[in-house]
């Protein structure tokens, strides 16, 4: 089992014993089982999933870090939203706004990366929120 802890600046979102965790990191999605090698990585906007007693929970995460040490997975995320907390219409509006902005891009590369991350977060919200 893996001790999974997900914390945002506002609160502790998850503190569970999980069988498996899947997380979107800057280097790609990783699957974590017990006795995973130690790791520290930045998070990428996307859908995190974890399995407890055979049932899989999913949430949108964005920003922050993951640390794996022994059988403990600590996730410090800027945002961690469960499916029921997602406003699909708001996510759809944000996605359209960012797509339009990126289609007419005239800013810096750093600003482009920020907007691209916004787009990825909106897409993850839509993917999870629409899967009801």
Looking at this protein, list some descriptive labels.
ATP Synthase, domain 1; 46% strand; 8-stranded mixed sheet; 132 residues; globular; 2 helices; 2 domains; alpha+beta
Model description:
The protein has 2 helices and 8 strands. Strand 1 and strand 2 form a beta hairpin. It is globular. Helix 1 packs antiparallel against helix 2 (109-129). It has helices at residues 88-103, 109-129, and strands at 2-7, 12-18, 20-25, 28-32, 39-42, 46-52, 55-69, 72-82. By secondary structure, it is an alpha+beta fold. The chain has 2 domains: 2-83, ATP Synthase, domain 1, CATH 2.60.15.10; 87-129. Strands 1, 2, 3, 4, 5, 6, 7 and 8 form an 8-stranded mixed beta sheet that branches. The longest helix has 21 residues, at 109-129.
For the secondary structure, the number of strands is 8
Quote the average pLDDT: 93
CATH architecture term of the largest domain: Sandwich
The CATH H-level superfamily of the largest domain is F0F1 ATP synthase delta/epsilon subunit, N-terminal
Report the CATH topology name of the largest domain. ATP Synthase, domain 1
Instruction: Give me the secondary-structure category.
Output: alpha+beta
Integer count of domains = 2
| Total of DSSP H or I helical runs spanning 4+ residues | 2
**Briefly, what CATH class of the largest domain?**
Mainly Beta
Regions with pLDDT < 50 over 5+ consecutive residues?
none
Series of secondary-structure elements, N-terminal to C-terminal: EEEEEEEEHH
Share of helix among residues?
25-40%
Terminal CA distance reads 28 Å
Radius of gyration, in Å, reads 15 Å
Global geometry: globular
**What's the story with the biggest beta sheet?**
8 strands, mixed
**Approximately how much beta-strand content do the residues carry?**
over 45%
């Amino acid at each position: 089992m893996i001790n999974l802890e997900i914390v945002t600046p506002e609160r502790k979102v998850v503190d569970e014993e999980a069988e498996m965790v899947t997380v979107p990191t800057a280097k790609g999605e990783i699957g974590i089982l017990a006795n995973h090698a130690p790791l520290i990585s930045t998070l990428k906007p996307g859908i995190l999933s974890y399995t407890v007693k055979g049932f899989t929970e999913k949430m949108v995460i964005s920003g922050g870090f993951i640390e794996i040490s022994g059988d403990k997975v600590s996730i410090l995320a800027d945002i961690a939203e469960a499916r029921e907390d997602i406003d699909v219409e708001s996510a759809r509006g944000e996605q359209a706004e960012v797509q339009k902005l990126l289609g007419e891009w005239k800013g810096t590369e750093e600003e482009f990366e920020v907007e691209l991350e916004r787009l990825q977060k909106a897409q993850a919200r839509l993917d999870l929120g629409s899967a009801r």
